[in-house]
């Protein structure tokens, strides 16, 4: 076997050396085998589901490649023609695919960073007291992505200083920009103004690594202390009624997290459109984009120098708000995820599905497909029971103009990238909500109760039965209850970033 003892990636060795200086007490190397297995699990899922062009056949126990090699899985290893690998980077290197070189580096970073998180993240019991604490409880990152903890260019010191799993206070910098050199949309907070200047929040990593390329440096270093949320580059400034999404021009998980000029230009208008649309629905609301701003370089908003301000979600007395991802995340100290402590699994899941499905499926019928995965859906609980949903992050929603028109909604003047066909609307919602959010909830609760997909399927049928009949509703219902469920091909997307393909998983309702 190419084992944990025989193979230590260069990045793992670098992290260990840095930790010996910064945090020598952390049991980093003890956490490497588990991190390797966790990332390998995610990678194997991609090989089982994604339409990878070098795979010619999949059977129940093996995958055959175009060159005749055979892949099998047993415990924490993947074998290539019988030779086992327990490190995802070593496995990809052994495949020898030129297009996998980038992914090899990314999974190596994911392993190193996940081991660091598991070694150093503090453990808090459920329920945490604040939304940031709930967001910071998710130690392993994306539950399905092989690049779940990849933060390209981050050192150990960067992870410790900025990673939400370490619960730091991040001192955001402020960059003063004259109004004639800045594009501003919406109600920019007075706290982020100085005279006639706009004060643009800048992540300190961005200040150190990107601002010098533009000949800039912060005018107010460290002036805005904030708690990082699950997305790392989105933070909750202490004592403010809003959150800020900063530009971070490096790859986190699978994308460079800068902010396009288009997002600055359209984000507030799209937020207003969605706010008014979801106001017609029960148990569902929007975390609104209050404002957005970007520095103008040569007359155009620059994606490295931008920020979006969101209103903090409103929570009533006795309510707890948290991302759904926090319910399914296994605690760093071990044991069951918080979801397992909320009562009878079948009853809880039925309540959740009865609350979530009507608004999500109605919006789909109206031509609005949300990116409704576990990070974007905030769940409001009262005494552990699901009460309502709050949706956040508008960049990846998709709209169907014909369905909007049929529902009496006007096209909100968005760029063409938001406009998709009906099949792509369905794929957007089904891949994010059913293949990700619901799969995570059912998979977590399945350790304690069987037949949970039947519970969800019953609520799907109830939701559709209560909706006004129409062509869109009939088509969506038939697809959801009878066709394979689309899911994002997360591994293929790293091997071929230009792909527009979907992966598919068996339909649990059919």
Protein architecture, described:
It is a single chain. The protein is α+β, with helices and mostly antiparallel strands and 510 residues long. Helix content is 37%, strand content 23%. The chain contains 15 helices and 24 strands. It has a 9-stranded antiparallel beta sheet. A 5-stranded antiparallel beta sheet has the order 1-2-3-4-5, covered by helices on one side. Strands 15-21-20-18 form a 4-stranded mixed beta sheet. The model has no long low-confidence stretch (mean pLDDT 96).
What is the strand and helix layout of this fold?
Layout: H1 10-22, H2 28-49, E1 55-58, E2 63-65, E3 70-74, E4 77-80, E5 83-85, H3 88-95, H4 101-120, H5 131-135, H6 156-162, E6 170-178, E7 182-186, E8 193-194, E9 197-202, H7 204-209, E10 220-228, E11 234-237, E12 242-246, E13 248-252, E14 255-257, H8 261-278, E15 284-286, E16 289-297, E17 300-311, E18 319-323, H9 324-328, H10 345-366, E19 368-369, E20 377-382, E21 385-391, E22 398-399, H11 401-406, H12 422-445, H13 452-466, H14 471-482, E23 485-487, H15 490-495, E24 503-505
Parallel strand pairs: 15-21
Antiparallel strand pairs: 1-2, 2-3, 3-4, 4-5, 6-9, 6-10, 7-16, 8-9, 10-11, 11-12, 12-17, 13-14, 16-17, 18-20, 19-22, 20-21, 23-24
Helix pairs in contact: 2-4, 3-4, 10-12, 10-13
Oligomer: single chain
Top-tier CATH class of the largest domain: Mainly Alpha
Number of distinct helices: 15
Largest sheet: 9 strands, antiparallel
Mean pLDDT: 96
Number of domains: 3
Instruction: Give the DSSP E fraction (strand runs of 2 or more residues).
Output: 15-25%
Low-confidence stretches: none
How many β-strand runs?
Answer: 24
CATH topology of the largest domain: Transferase(Phosphotransferase), domain 1
**What is the distance, rounded to the nearest whole angstrom, between the alpha carbons of the first and last residues?**
40 Å
Principal-axis shape: globular
What is the annotated CATH architecture of the largest domain?
Orthogonal Bundle
Percent helix among the residues?
25-40%
Give, in spatial order, the strands making up the sheet with the most strands: 7-16-17-12-11-10-6-9-8
Tell me the radius of gyration. Answer: 23 Å
Instruction: Look at the helices and sheets and give the structural class.
Output: alpha+beta
Domain Aerobactin siderophore biosynthesis IucA/IucC-like C-terminal: 347-498
Pathway: Siderophore biosynthesis
GO molecular function, one term: acid-amino acid ligase activity
Domain Aerobactin siderophore biosynthesis IucA/IucC N-terminal: 133-329
């Amino acid at each position: 076997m190419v084992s944990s003892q025989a193979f230590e990636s260069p990045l793992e060795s670098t992290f260990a050396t840095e930790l010996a200086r910064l945090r020598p007490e952390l049991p980093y190397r003890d956490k490497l085998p588990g991190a390797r297995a966790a990332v390998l699990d995610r990678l194997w899922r991609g090989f089982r589901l994604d339409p990878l062009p070098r795979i010619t056949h999949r059977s129940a126990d093996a995958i055959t490649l175009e060159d005749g090699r055979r892949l099998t899985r047993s415990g924490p290893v993947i074998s290539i023609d019988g030779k086992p690998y327990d490190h995802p980077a070593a496995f990809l290197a052994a495949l020898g695919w030129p297009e996998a070189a980038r992914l090899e580096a990314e999974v190596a970073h994911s392993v190193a960073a996940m081991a660091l998180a598991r070694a150093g993240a503090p453990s808090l019991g459920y329920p945490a007291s604040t939304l940031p604490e709930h967001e910071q409880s998710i130690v392993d990152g994306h539950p399905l992505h092989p690049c779940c903890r990849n933060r390209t260019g981050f050192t150990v010191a960067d992870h410790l200083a900025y990673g939400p799993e370490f619960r730091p206070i991040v001192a955001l910098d402020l960059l003063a920009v004259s109004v004639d050199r800045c594009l501003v949309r919406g109600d920019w907070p007075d706290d982020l103004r100085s005279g006639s200047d706009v004060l643009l929040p800048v992540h300190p990593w961005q200040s150190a690594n990107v601002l010098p390329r533009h000949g800039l440096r912060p005018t107010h270093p460290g002036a805005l202390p904030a708690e990082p949320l699950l997305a790392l580059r989105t933070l909750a400034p202490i004592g403010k009624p809003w959150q800020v999404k900063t530009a971070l021009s490096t790859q986190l998980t699978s994308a460079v997290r800068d902010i396009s000029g288009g997002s600055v230009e359209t984000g507030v208008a799209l937020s207003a459109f969605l706010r008014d649309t979801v106001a017609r629905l029960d148990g569902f609301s929007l975390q609104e984009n209050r404002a957005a701003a970007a520095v103008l370089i040569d007359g155009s908003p620059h994606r490295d120098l931008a920020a979006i301000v969101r209103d903090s979600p409103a929570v009533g007395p006795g309510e707890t708000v948290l991302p759904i991802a926090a319910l399914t995340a296994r605690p760093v100290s071990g044991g069951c995820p918080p979801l397992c402590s909320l009562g009878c699994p079948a009853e809880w899941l039925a309540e959740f599905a009865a609350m979530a499905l009507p608004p999500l499926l109605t919006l789909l019928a109206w031509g609005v497909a949300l990116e409704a995965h576990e990070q974007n859906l905030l769940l409001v609980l009262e005494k552990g029971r699901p009460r309502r949903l709050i949706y956040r992050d508008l960049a990846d929603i998709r709209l169907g103009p014909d369905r909007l028109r049929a529902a009496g909604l006007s096209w909100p003047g968005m760029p063409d990238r938001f406009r998709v066909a009906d099949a792509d609307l369905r794929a957007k919602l089904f891949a994010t909500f059913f293949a990700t959010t619901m799969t995570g909830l059912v998979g977590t609760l399945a350790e304690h109760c069987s037949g949970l997909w039947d519970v969800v399927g019953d609520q799907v049928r109830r939701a559709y039965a209560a909706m006004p009949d129409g062509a869109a509703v009939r088509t969506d219902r038939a697809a959801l209850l009878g066709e394979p469920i689309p899911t994002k091909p997360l591994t293929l997307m790293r091997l071929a970033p230009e792909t527009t393909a979907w992966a598919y998983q068996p339909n649990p309702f059919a």
